[in-house]
Amino acid sequence: MAKRRKNGLYPEISAELSALMRTGWADTERHDLQLAEQAPHATRRRAALSARFPGERLVIPSGNLKVRSNDDTYPFRPYSGYVHMAGDQVRDGALVLEPRADGGHDAYCYQLPRDSRDDDEFWTGAHAELWTGRRRSLAESERVLGLPCRDVRTAAADLAAASGAPTRIVRGIDPSLEAAVTTDAGRDAELEEALSDLRLVKDAWELGELRKAVDSTVRGFTDVVAELSRAIASSERWIEGTFFRRARLEGNAVGYGSICAAGEHATIMHWTDNDGPVRPGDLLLLDAGVETHSLYTADVTRTLPISGTFTPLQREIYDAVYEAQEAGMAAVKPGAQYRDFHEAAQRHLTARLVEWGFIEGPVDRAYELGLQRRFTMAGTGHMLGLDVHDCAQARTEDYVDGVLEPGMCLTVEPGLYFQADDLTVPKAWRGIGVRIEDDLVVTDDGHENLSAALPRAADEVEAWMARFSG
């Protein structure tokens, strides 16, 4: 029985209404569904995961809805490890790998089935289909995913009764499933770690999705430039809304909160309030990415002169960041250490900061002490994929201490940030922030810049803005 709203206008359901609602519905089962394009890739990923944990039961939940306000929920976004391994995005689901005697696993999915028309839940429940939209039936999901599918409403009891093998579950995703199993936190963390490890190298299908995300993002940046005059007349919110429109039109949404930072807001690494003025003469730092329908996201940053041309000082700072990014990108190639691109970019910025007299040299000493971080703040990039900071739980030896391989996708994003209240730099420098970020995939002989369609060099940026700016 659905939970009744405290102040609902219809406290009771008459027997006659209940009977009326349960009759007269067409059979809408879909028999034309095909195997999802991603399904064969997900099968290979599950085989790789299976090989890491022979003889163990693995549970990977998709996650649940979270209440935003009373009977409203936040937009649902499934756990990325579930998406990667199941090729699916349902809420209240779980992928289970059940161990076999031969050391392999049988995979199946728990999912919420369609609402039955035999009771009132299908039209009175808070998340009933008549309120939130049609779900796939279990049979439909089996055809799409290429996996056996079971009713998730029995999952907690099934897992609690399961025996014969130790269980691991990804924690923090589905409390009810987590409570149903007896596991060890350390061993569960190893499962989450493995799920991140297995996303470090993207397959051909994933790279195609990332290209879609980046291409849409390029169009979104162009939209923003075309509407800069309207942003000047309003605020950073116009920029945020302009990019979001493209993300919703061509993808699922934005892959993370867009940073639409004008003026001194550009010095704030994660400025997402986006409520400040957009003034000619200032810089706009736009860090945004479209998330595809498959949930792969781009992550691109450009710093743009709102008036269309850089001032001499803005160009000097911009060129320093551009040169640092060039140095970092040159270090992205197979066999290189992951840290190489970061160190190349940071050393260049350190040299410029010493040259400008903002930190004490020599350069090697300043870099060793990390003095440049007062003005560079963050690292120079991160892995990219289903999450904007993808593979975050991967083993350190495979990620930041690892070696680049073809198929890895990462960002290169050096920046300089001179805070508005920083008395160690001249007044003219205060409140200027510059970041340039591109999405690179490691290839057999170097790298491909997926976001190369967006200009980077200062002259190219100005020419691009002159062409599209409104």
TrEMBL record:
* Domain (Aminopeptidase P N-terminal) ranges: 36-178
Pfam families of this UniProt entry? AMP_N, Peptidase_M24
Superkingdom of the organism of origin: Bacteria
CDD domains tied to this protein: Prolidase
The text of the family note is:
Belongs to the peptidase M24B family.
- Provide the protein name: Xaa-Pro aminopeptidase
Q: Which reaction does it catalyse?
A: Release of any N-terminal amino acid, including proline, that is linked to proline, even from a dipeptide or tripeptide
* EC numbers on record: 3.4.11.9
Q: Which SMART domains match?
A: AMP_N (SM01011)
Q: Which cofactor does it need?
A: Mn(2+)
Q: Which UniProt keywords apply?
A: Aminopeptidase, Hydrolase, Manganese, Metal-binding, Protease
- What are the recorded GO MF terms, alphabetically? aminopeptidase activity
